[in-house]
Amino acid sequence: MTLLGHNRRRMSGAECMADLLAGYGVTHVFMVPAVLRRTFAEMERRTTIKRIHTHGEKSAAYMADGYARATGKPGICMAQVIGALNLAAGLRDAYLAHSPVIAFTGGRDPATKFRKVYQEVDDVPAFEPVTKFNATVDDVARFPDMARQAFRAAVSGTPGPVHLQFRGNEGQVDAEEAEMEPLVEELFARVPPFRPEPEPAHVRAALACLQQAERPVIVAGGGVRASRAAPELVALAEALKIPVATSLNGKDSIPGTHPLSVGVVGTYSRESANRVVQEADLICFVGTETGGMTTHFWAVPKIGTPAVQIDINAEALGRNYPLQAAVLGDAKVTLARMRELADTGAEARASAAARRKAWVERAQKICQEWREKYAPLLTSDAVPIRPERMCAELSKHVPDNAIVVVDTGHAGMWMGGMYDLTSPNQSYLRSAGHLGWAFPAGLGAKCGAPERPVVTFTGDAGFWYHIGEVETAVRWRMNAVTVVNNNSSGNQSKRGFDRVYGGKQTEQALELWTYTKVNFAKIAEDMGAIGIRVEKASDFAPALNRALAADRPVIIDVVTDVDALAPVAVS
Ligand SMILES: Cc1ncc(C[n+]2csc(CCOP(=O)(O)OP(=O)(O)O)c2C)c(N)n1
Question: By alpha-carbon position, which residue is closest to atom 11 of ligand 1?
Answer without folding.
Answer: 490
